[in-house]
Specification:
Helix content is about 35%, strand content about 15%. It has about 260 residues and is of the alpha/beta class. It has a single domain, classed as TIM Barrel, CATH 3.20.20. Bound molecules: zinc ion. Zinc ion binds near residues 19 and 79.
Length: about 260
């Protein structure tokens, strides 16, 4: 695969979070090329209880997705859904991917069922501080139990509490997430679409030695738009050493973790 272009400080320009939804790989590559960015294409993966345009749910579907990207100058990944996604696939099939990304935007409802926090079905509990304690713990749980490479959309908050962002992501909660990212070698995505994590978190995470990836969460013309990610990289003074690289064969979380 071609080497990606780099920033002045040697950071490879890679958008590890793009979706093919309603577009073609070649079309995404056109946008990526225009912006001088290499892309990783991910498909949602997990049980069919997760509702997305495409949800890969078994080895055959996963292998067909990987085959559809064969020969294209892109990284191949999945956006893993919920806590049971790994049970859908063999380790060998997952290890054929360059990486696994997940996020914490689907959480447990009060009855334990899964709920997408960006949809109207999600009702914010009255006690937002208590919710946040649980949300920080949920990040830790995901990293502790799931063989993932990247925590995508990291530190995103639902609209109901976003205006109090700094009072929600207190330092102890941020440190919990950072400690888990270090302990489980999980990279933190700097999301250009959601503009998260914000600077206070990023500073603490960088100091602690967490690795970062960039992601647009883009579809179509939205791919490879990394303005916020690159701006934060500049402000933080990130170098190549701070940046996520897909683990080599044999060393992927799915092979090392369970
Ligand atoms: Zn996504």
């Amino acid at each position: 695969m071609d080497e990606p272009a780099q920033t002045d400080s040697g950071i490879p320009l890679i958008d590890f979070h793009t979706h093919r939804d309603g577009s073609t790989v070649d079309k995404l590559l056109e946008f990526a090329k225009e912006r001088g960015v290499k892309i990783g294409i991910i498909e949602h993966a997990g049980t069919k209880e997760n509702k997305y345009p495409v949800v890969l749910s078994n080895d055959d579907e996963l292998k067909a997705f990987i085959a559809s990207l064969e020969g294209k100058p892109v990284y191949k990944g999945i956006q893993a859904e919920w806590l049971d996604w790994a049970s859908c696939f063999s380790k060998d099939a997952v290890a054929q991917l360059d990486y696994v990304l997940t996020d914490a935007m689907t959480c447990r409802n009060t009855d334990g069922s899964r709920v997408k926090m960006w949809e109207p079905a999600f009702k914010m509990p009255d006690d937002a501080q208590k919710f946040m304690d649980g949300y920080a713990d949920f990040y830790v749980e995901i990293m502790a139990t799931e063989p993932i490479d990247i925590m995508g959309n990291a530190m995103w908050l639902p609209a109901q509490i976003e205006k109090n962002y700094d009072a929600m992501w207190t330092e102890p909660r941020m440190r919990k997430v950072i400690d888990a990212a270090l302990k489980y070698s999980t990279a933190i995505e700097i999301s250009a679409s959601f503009k998260v994590p914000r600077l206070p978190f990023l500073k603490l995470a960088k100091e602690a030695g967490v690795k970062f990836s960039f992601g647009s969460n883009g579809r179509g013309a939205g791919v490879a738009k990394l303005e916020y990610s690159l701006e934060m990289a500049k402000v933080l003074g990130l170098t190549r050493a701070d940046i996520f690289t897909p683990a080599p064969a044999g060393k992927k979380p799915i092979q090392m973790r369970k």
